[in-house]
Amino acid sequence: MIGRLYSLILSLGSLTLITFCLWSVWSKIANVDESHVGHVEYRILTIENVTSKPFELHSLADTDLHSLIDLPSFNFNINQKVCNNNTKLIMALVHTAPGHYAKRQAIRDTWAKMIPTLFFMGLPDSNITQSDVVLENKIYSDIVQGDFIDCYRNLTYKHVMVLKWTLYYCPCARYLLKTDDDTLVNAPYLLEILNHRLSPLGARNLLMCQLMFSSMVKRSYRSKWRVSYSEYPNRWYPIYCRGWAIMYSPDVIYKLYTEAQVSPYFWIDDVHITGTIADKQNITQTDLGTLAVDESDVVGDKNISRKFLFCLLTKADESMRTFWKTLLQPNDTVVSSSTNLGLDENIGNK
């Protein structure tokens, strides 16, 4: 009798625990839409509504250029001033590591031929690698390097460095694309969307990416993304962007940058910049939907030219050129994915 009672209590306890876990997950999912209440949706610019600059650079402190979050003496070890205050439709800003030469070369040989592109990195832990980076930059003049060590724990420094560089050295770009060096950009289709579906004049409040919903903080010591309770006490991350392909409008760059400069450092940059910081600034992320794909979604497809904007590759240095060649091949069937972004005739009302 006592054994049956003990078994019943154990079963009820287990059922209560399972019910609580399911309720916790469901409440997080159910509140996803509520997190965007009060946020401002993006809007495209037309000749009629271009009324002001996206930001005023003089509003930044005189000491701002040489500070990076909690680094008081930041400098660009290698810099590029390619914009020269000239208007550019789009600039691509690629996160890379010093040793990823093959990936950078694959990008140079493919989609960077159509979109102005720079590669952003920190310092390597090898003088030989640094010498290689300096030589590479002498040849291509497309590397921007900060004076912090390039490692996982410094990813947020790299991300904010990209935002800083944009504000100081390319403020006239109408769209900014932040990618990783294993991302294939469907440049022809992207330029078509910017010019004919969005607006060649730019946008405001645009933060467009592949969204992550209801993402639980990893606490396992086996995970390279483990976060301690002291680093991040909450159980769930806010809605944030997967960082391998993010489209910004320049006003959003300014808002994220100025907030990040005065916020405590958190090393997972995607969560911190496009989640926590974006939420503080009431910026709504716009989901790319099926316009952002993994390589497995399109491998072997010979008719992919308008099925995606961004593709995450597993071995970019090997497959980038092959996919690019396929993208440039003419095809008879046009599959438009523009409806995934609401890119219809009424987009100007966004």
From TrEMBL:
The protein's Enzyme Commission number: 2.4.1.-
Subcellular location(s) of the protein: Golgi apparatus membrane
Any one biological process term the GO annotation gives: protein O-linked glycosylation
Listed GO CC annotations: Golgi membrane
UniProt keyword terms in alphabetical order: Glycoprotein, Glycosyltransferase, Golgi apparatus, Membrane, Signal-anchor, Transferase, Transmembrane, Transmembrane helix
Major subcellular location class: Golgi
Gene3D superfamilies membership: 3.90.550.50
Gene Ontology MF annotations: hexosyltransferase activity
Membrane topology of the entry: Single-pass type II membrane protein
Protein family per UniProt: Belongs to the glycosyltransferase 31 family.
PANTHER family: BETA-1,3-N-ACETYLGLUCOSAMINYLTRANSFERASE (PTHR11214), HEXOSYLTRANSFERASE (PTHR11214:SF376)
Name listed for the protein in its UniProt record: Hexosyltransferase
Originating species: Acyrthosiphon pisum
